[in-house]
């Protein structure tokens, strides 16, 4: 199944793993459907004008000005997290929320930022769990102190046991399985999965998912993600040493273009695919330097996290029923690129 605007939703191969999250997805769909119905009553043109205003509008609610802190394992300058932050900020405007954002790639320092939010007595916390072991104690402190916590993006399997109200993101293994099946459809035989952040459980799960469904051979390649020239040289060397590699899978949008360049420098015909989406990836889909991308809708992760905390503070309600609220995966190809260009250009996809 392909859709002009949103790509192909991964379905058959993930049925056994995503059953537990289907109700959560349907619940999100109901909320979004109601929101879109409300907008359409004002007329399509007016609704689009209102959306185009972005975060500069006024609050749509008359509730106390609660304070919500979001603390993630990556941030400013990373196109994925810029989109997450944008979604959270727009929800905060709508919900009259004072939004605080901070991040640190080092798990220990990320935990310190969560502690700082607790000390500020915020009304809610949103946190990513890329390295769950380092975050367990401080998340428990927040919950014990009465601060509602939501997790996003990574740490789905640990979220509930840590005391979080819900997890918002994609099932990383399922997303990897979607890539594996896509590689099979393209008759790929040997792939390399490029991991740019060692210790990130979500990244390992993605490559594990590819391995689970891919009929060919796959190797993990660990690179220094903070040094893009090093990433390029490592991948170029790998492709030169193994001409049988016909597919490169990167785990973040900023690395897809680098992978394409490395393949070109190595004289390799390997196809490039990636997790996540940004403006450059859409351009790559259009010029076919990137064959497909798997989108987990980061804007929705940020927006829904803040909006769900507002709903909880206002009405003690929560989506998911204890199961993850899924925002992906969606497989996107060149067929979808033109329809997505507007949204990546404004930084919401």
Automatic annotation (TrEMBL):
<dbReference type="GO" id="GO:0030288">
    <property type="term" value="C:outer membrane-bounded periplasmic space"/>
</dbReference>
<feature type="domain" description="Periplasmic binding protein">
    <location>
        <begin position="69"/>
        <end position="313"/>
    </location>
</feature>
<dbReference type="InterPro" id="IPR025997">
    <property type="entry name" value="SBP_2_dom"/>
</dbReference>
<dbReference type="InterPro" id="IPR050555">
    <property type="entry name" value="Bact_Solute-Bind_Prot2"/>
</dbReference>
<dbReference type="InterPro" id="IPR028082">
    <property type="entry name" value="Peripla_BP_I"/>
</dbReference>
<comment type="similarity">
    <text>Belongs to the bacterial solute-binding protein 2 family.</text>
</comment>
<dbReference type="GO" id="GO:0030246">
    <property type="term" value="F:carbohydrate binding"/>
</dbReference>
<dbReference type="Pfam" id="PF13407">
    <property type="entry name" value="Peripla_BP_4"/>
</dbReference>
<protein>
    <submittedName>
        <fullName>Sugar ABC transporter substrate-binding protein</fullName>
    </submittedName>
</protein>
């Amino acid at each position: 199944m392909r859709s002009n605007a949103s790509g192909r939703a991964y379905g058959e191969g993930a049925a056994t793993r995503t059953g537990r999250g289907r109700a959560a997805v349907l619940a999100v769909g109901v909320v979004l459907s109601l929101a879109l119905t409300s907008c359409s009553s004002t007329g399509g043109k007016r609704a689009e004008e209102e959306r185009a205003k972005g975060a500069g509008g006024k609050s749509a609610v008359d509730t106390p000005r609660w304070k919500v802190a979001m603390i993630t394992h990556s941030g400013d300058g990373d196109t994925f997290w810029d989109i997450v932050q944008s979604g959270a900020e727009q929800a905060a405007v709508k919900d009259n929320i004072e939004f605080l954002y901070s991040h640190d790639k080092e798990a220990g320092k990320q935990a310190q930022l969560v502690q700082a939010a607790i000390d500020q007595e915020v009304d809610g916390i949103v946190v990513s769990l890329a390295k769950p072991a380092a975050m367990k104690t401080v998340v428990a402190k927040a919950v014990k102190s009465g601060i509602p916590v939501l997790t996003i993006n990574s740490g789905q399997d640990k979220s509930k046991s840590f005391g979080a109200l819900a997890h918002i993101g994609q099932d990383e293994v399922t997303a990897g399985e979607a890539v594996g099946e896509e590689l099979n459809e393209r008759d790929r035989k040997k792939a390399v999965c490029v991991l740019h952040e060692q210790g990130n459980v979500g990244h390992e799960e993605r490559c594990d998912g590819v391995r689970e469904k891919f009929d060919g051979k796959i190797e993990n390649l660990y690179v220094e993600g903070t040094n893009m020239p090093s990433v390029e040289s490592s991948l170029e060397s790998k492709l030169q040493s193994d001409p049988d590699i016909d597919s490169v899978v990167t785990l973040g949008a900023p690395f897809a273009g680098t992978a394409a360049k490395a393949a070109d420098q190595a004289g390799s015909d390997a196809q490039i695919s990636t997790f996540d989406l940004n403006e450059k990836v859409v351009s790559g889909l259009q010029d076919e330097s990137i064959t497909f991308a798997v989108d987990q809708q980061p804007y929705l992760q940020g927006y829904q996290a803040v909006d769900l905390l507002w709903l909880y503070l206002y009405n003690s309600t929560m989506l998911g029923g204890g199961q993850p609220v899924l925002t992906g995966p969606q497989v996107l190809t060149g067929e979808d690129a033109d329809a997505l260009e507007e949204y990546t250009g404004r930084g919401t996809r």
